Amino acid sequence: MKITRIFIASALILGGIKAQAQLSLGGHFYGEDAFKYSQSKIIGSARMQAMGGSYAALGADASNAYSNPAGLGFYNRSELSITPVFNSLNTSSLYTGSTSNSSTSNANIGQLGLIMSSNGQGTRKKRSSFAITYSKQTNLLTDFSYAGQNKRSSMMDYFAEKATRRGVDSGTLDGEFNTSTGTASTSTGMYYQAFMIDPVSGSGAPYTKIEKSLPVNQTGKNSSTGSQSQWNVAYGVNLDDKTYIGFSVGFVRLNYEYLGSHNEQFPQGKVFNGFAYTDDLNARGGGINLGVGTIVKVSENISLGANITSPSWISVTELYNSSITIDVKPNTIVTDYKTVSTDENEYTYNLKTPLKASGGATFFFPGKKGFITADAEYVGYSQMGISDPQDNTWSAEQKRAIKNFYKDAVNLKVGAEYRIENIRLRVGAKFMPDPYKQKVDNLDRSQMILTGGVGYRSSKFFVDIAGVFNKFTTAYTPYELANTQNYGSVNLNNSQKSFVISVGTFF
């Protein structure tokens, strides 16, 4: 069955964009997903991560295959390398005055690289290199919980408002329920069959919540895993040891899994002791992007670099279902279904990620003692796109909302390396400004990422180690209501650390 956008909105009212986005679209704002899948922080080899990901004007690294393919022209021998990454995330959440803490971690292959270098031909072409690499572009790891007492509303209020907006009568909601499977074909049908809502009068809208007691003790837990990764095929050429040019093609894979729960207990409940609401979402996708870059040695000690990477055009398929489990007071509700679920639904749409462009400069210390490098990276968040080929009106609404909420950003990166014989000492930083046009949940979402590392290089192999440290704030809204005073968000303080190792051999 093809999922409707109104249906999937029941699951994904999360992540910080406030009610006016979802309500104006009559469904989920997919710009949040485009942003989530697109925001790369620091990626690449341990060498490049240790220097803040500043590689627009640097070469001879497998990361050049997708960052600036011109850097492949600096290779004078072939290379095979692997980069494992170990990530940890600690999150402190604040909801209605109560604090909760969560932590999670994972390990993955951040990068694989095979570089095949060859001698040049003719008088200008000194060397060239062909690269095949695999890389993790975005890490979608999250894990947090929240708990607090809400004196203003229940998630049941959201259920009632959503059913009221839909405007169907209770007979229609009954018809959307399959008594043999205990599942509903729509989210509002699920709310109704789980006794969350009832018509105020008669059999149609408006709807109201059945349990009206306050306060409500609310707890929740959200976790996600996955990544956007890509295979790159790239080529770089060295012309006269002064000009370097490169091209790349990236084959993108998206893999995302999300599981969320929201539980409510009613200390003064008349009908319910409580209920538990869960969401389960899986997203898979594939696409392509293109890149081109150049590096120019303007003097013995200064190199300038620039590259541009097209948007990734990705086809995404989502599988989603939700459920409600109820705990009723004795002698109140008689039902054969303690748990009511939605049918598993599938929805396919097209995603366009931002265009990215970088420019940078590197100053090399005399005597080959090291260098300092810096980049400015443009990311066109306002140009992200979401489209459904079967619904041009909805696609236009999504595009308009993206332009209203996101602005283009210029990330700043700086890094340095100092050489002591075969030892390399590295340090770096990356600043990412807030990409929202207006502050959402009154939070500053800019990020400062600090990095450092050490490496060893011989004529036959290399080993590099890096640490990446990032603290940032986000927010999560369990549900939203027409009256913004009647619900709240969970403020999240995140501490993210990565430990990166690259090992490679020359041949």
Write the layout of secondary structure elements.
Layout: H1 5-8, H2 19-25, H3 31-38, H4 46-50, H5 64-67, E1 79-95, E2 98-119, E3 125-139, E4 142-150, H6 155-166, H7 170-175, E5 177-178, E6 183-184, H8 187-193, E7 197-199, E8 207-209, E9 216-239, E10 243-265, E11 272-297, E12 302-309, E13 313-328, E14 339-342, E15 345-352, E16 356-364, E17 370-379, E18 385-387, H9 392-405, E19 409-420, E20 423-432, E21 447-457, E22 461-476, E23 490-506
Parallel strand pairs: 6-14
Antiparallel strand pairs: 1-2, 1-23, 2-3, 3-9, 4-9, 5-6, 7-8, 9-10, 10-11, 11-12, 11-13, 12-16, 13-14, 13-15, 15-18, 16-17, 17-19, 19-20, 20-21, 21-22, 22-23
Keywords: Signal
Protein name: Outer membrane protein transport protein (OMPP1/FadL/TodX)
Organism: Emticicia aquatica
Description:
With 507 residues, the protein is mainly β. It has a single domain, classed as Porin (Beta Barrel), CATH 2.40.160. Helices cover 13% and strands 53% of the residues. It has a 14-stranded antiparallel barrel. Strand 19 and strand 20 form a beta hairpin. It is elongated, with a radius of gyration of 26 Å. The protein starts with a helix and ends with a strand. The N terminus is likely disordered. This is Outer membrane protein transport protein (OMPP1/FadL/TodX). Keywords: Signal.
Features:
507 residues, 13% helix, Outer membrane protein transport protein (OMPP1/FadL/TodX), two-stranded antiparallel sheet, 14-stranded antiparallel β-barrel, mainly beta, signal, disordered N terminus, Porin
Distance between the termini: 53 Å
Helix content: 10-25%
Beta percentage is over 45%
Coarse shape: elongated
Q: Could you give the order of strands across the largest sheet?
A: 1-2-3-9-10-11-12-16-17-19-20-21-22-23
CATH class: Mainly Beta
- Rg calc: 26 Å
Biggest β-sheet description: 14 strands, antiparallel, barrel
Number of helices: 9
How many individual β-strands?
A: 23
- Judged by helices, strands and strand pairing, the structural class is mainly beta
So, the CATH homologous superfamily?
Outer membrane protein transport protein (OMPP1/FadL/TodX)
Domain module tally: 1
CATH architecture: Beta Barrel
